[in-house]
Amino acid sequence: MQVFARLLLLLTFLAAPLRAAAEEAAPMTPAPAIPESMSTAINGDFDGRSYAADFAQDGKKGGGNDVVEFAGGLMSTRLCVRFGFQPAPYLVRVEGKKVHFYSEMTSEKQGKIVFSGFVEDGKLTADAKWAQARWYWTVNVGIKFDGALTDPK
User: Nearest Cα to 40, choosing from 85, 88, 107?
Assistant: First the structure.
C-alpha cells in the first residue's frame, strides 16, 4: 500500500509538467475564422434537409457512413449525437447555387468538432476538425464528408 501511495504522489507531482509539455508540443488546431459574409438566417431551401454521407479521416481511405442533418437552425450528424456532441447552430452563405455552411458542435467528454463545407446540386462536401484536449496530448483529427441529399423537396 505504501508503494502505491508513493507512486500516486510521484505521478501527481509529474502530471503538471507533463501536461504543459504535451500542450506545448501539440497545440490545438485553431478553428477557421467565421467569414463575416456568413449569416445566421435560416435558409428555407437548406434547413430541414438531410444528407447521407461517407466519411474518412484525412489521408485515409474508408471510414463509415453518417447522416448530416440541418433542422430548425441546428446542424447535427447522427454519429456525433451518439458520441455526445450536441446539435449546434449553423451559419450559411449563398453563392449562386452553392450554399456554404459552418457549425461548431461540442461534447462535454469528446471535445469540439468544427464543420465547414458546402452543398451544391444536392451534393454535400465538408471538412470537419475534431479537437479534444487531454492532459497528456491534444487529439486533432481531420475528417472529410461527401454525401447526397436524402429527402428531395
Answer: 88
**Measured between alpha carbons, how far is 124 from 46 in angstroms, rounded to an integer?**
11
Does the pTM surpass 0.85? The reply is no
> Position of cell 461527401?
146
pLDDT tens string, the chain, 153 residues long: the values are 454 444 444 344 444 444 444 444 444 444 444 555 555 555 556 788 999 999 988 878 778 899 999 999 999 999 899 989 999 999 998 888 899 999 999 998 899 999 999 999 999 999 999 998 888 888 889 999 999 999 765
Nearest to 93 by CA among 114, 119, 68: 119
Residues 55 and 115: beta-carbon distance below 8 Å: no
How buried is residue 103: exposed, middle or buried, by Cβ count under 10 Å (0-12/13-18/19+)?
buried
| Distance separating alpha carbons of residues 22 and 32, to the nearest angstrom | 23
